[in-house]
Structures are given as structure tokens and as C-alpha cells.
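BUG: 3D viewer hangs when loading the predicted structure for this chain

Environment: internal workstation, default settings.
Expected: structure renders.
Actual: progress bar stalls at 90%.

Input used:
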Amino acid sequence: MQVLKLLTLTAVAGLCIIPSAPKAQAQIRVEIGAAPACPYGYFDSAPYGCAPYGYYGPEWFSGGAFVGAGPWFHGREHFSGHVNNSFHPEHGYKGQMPERGEKATAEHANPPKNFKGNETRDGRGHVANKKG
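C-alpha cells produced before the viewer hung:
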């Protein structure tokens, strides 16, 4: 009987200690650095390579400056803008890509005037809607 009482008291004491144990907080810190310096903007998914001229529509630029994409997005909160995802390697594009730090050519200094997007995105890589 003494052994049963001792085991019961030990179990009760153990249950009282468990809730008071401190909780460990996970700390994750990710530093991605500066946004890529790309002449026509950069893709909104890793590895954030430079996007070719024609990928982004005019709403992605403010005063000739790209508003950003992915973790560097700095457009308005409920922003959505058109892209032509046929210029994305994940959709089969194999054409020329600009290098980081490259400057826009004089003829491509502004977003395309006759832009034809096929997708609307929010700046963080999420598709808002697709055109048929």
C-alpha cells in the first residue's frame, strides 16, 4: 500500500511540474539582402533572377522605378499587376535574360506600351487571376 501511495504522489507531483516548465521560443532570422539591381525588374520567386523586358506591365513601375517583387515588394497593400508569364523560365522561356546591374537600353527604358499580360499577381508571387 505504501508503494502505491508513493507512486501516486510522484505522479501528481510530476503533473504539477510539467505545466510550469518554460516554453522554448524558436527564433528564425532570415536576411535576404538587397533587392537585385535589374533593368526591368526581377522574378517574384527564388532565385529572383532578372526578368526580361516585357514580363511586367506598366503598373509595376512608378516614375520609371520598379516597385519590387517577392520579399522586396514595396507597392501598395492591395496591389495587383499584370505579368506575361510566358517570359518566365518555369513556363518555358529560354530567351535572353538581363544580368544583375545591367542598365535598361534607351528603347526599353520604360515598361512596354503595348503590354499583353496573361496573369495578375500581387507582388509576392501569388496569382490573383488568369486570363483564358
